[in-house]
From TrEMBL:
Entry's family note: Belongs to the dethiobiotin synthetase family.
Keywords: ATP-binding, Biotin biosynthesis, Cytoplasm, Ligase, Magnesium, Metal-binding, Nucleotide-binding
Location, primary (coarse class): cytoplasm
Subunit structure: Homodimer.
The protein's required cofactors: Mg(2+)
Binding annotation for Mg(2+): T15, D40, E96
Protein name: ATP-dependent dethiobiotin synthetase BioD
Length: 202
């Protein structure tokens, strides 16, 4: 089983969610495309406590913090879907996307096309802010139109009951977890949310 973590925007909280998933499932982690520093792989490694998780190297490690298609152009490479192959592991794998699901990889393909190629189940991270209902439902529509399997939604930020209700109502997808706006993100924080998440993924 592998899960592809995507978000409604660049700063939705995908890396934190990926760390929580890795801790909850003692799963491996893979960031196929990293554009700029710090590496999300290093962040996840610093946030997990279990010893079973293995961090797999990126397929593309780009230097510029920008959209993958733009960062690749600066580096003189072209990202190809053919180069995305699942790392060799018998473990559950958490795959973290780059930016939102329709961030371009090149002139043809988007980040979410990696999930389709790798037959991944989607976990959507929706941060809560003014305008996030629109951004979340547009993302959900894109996933639905592509007929991609969605495990559920993780809400990140101060709870907004009505925003969450209307999003779940229109998508029909389950809520997997609510993450509060934390002042400090530590291993203890990740363990706390991992414990909550386990029952949702059972």
């Amino acid at each position: 089983m592998n899960y592809f973590v995507t978000g409604i925007d660049t700063d939705s909280g995908k890396t934190l969610v990926s760390a929580i998933l890795c801790e909850a499932l003692e799963a491996d982690y893979w960031k196929p495309v990293q554009a700029g520093l710090p590496r999300d792989s290093d962040t996840v490694k610093g946030l997990i406590s279990n010893t079973a998780t293995r961090i797999h190297p990126e397929a593309y490690l780009l230097q510029t913090p920008a959209s993958p298609h733009a960062a690749a152009k600066i580096d003189g490479v072209e990202i190809s879907l053919d180069n995305f192959r699942l790392p060799e592991t018998m473990n559950t794998l958490i795959i973290e996307g780059a930016g939102g699901c329709l961030v371009p990889l090149n002139d043809r393909d988007f980040v979410i096309d990696i999930a389709r190629r790798l037959h991944s189940q989607i976990i959507l991270v929706a941060d809560l802010y003014l305008g996030s209902i629109n951004h979340t439902l547009l993302t959900c529509e894109a996933l639905t139109n592509r007929k991609l399997p969605v495990k559920g939604i993780i809400f990140n930020g101060d709870t907004n009951a009505e925003s969450e209700r209307i999003i779940l109502h229109h998508t029909g997808w389950p809520r997997l977890l609510n993450i509060s706006k934390e002042k400090n993100i530590t291993r203890e924080t990740v363990r706390h949310y991992a414990h909550q998440l386990k029952s949702s993924l059972a």
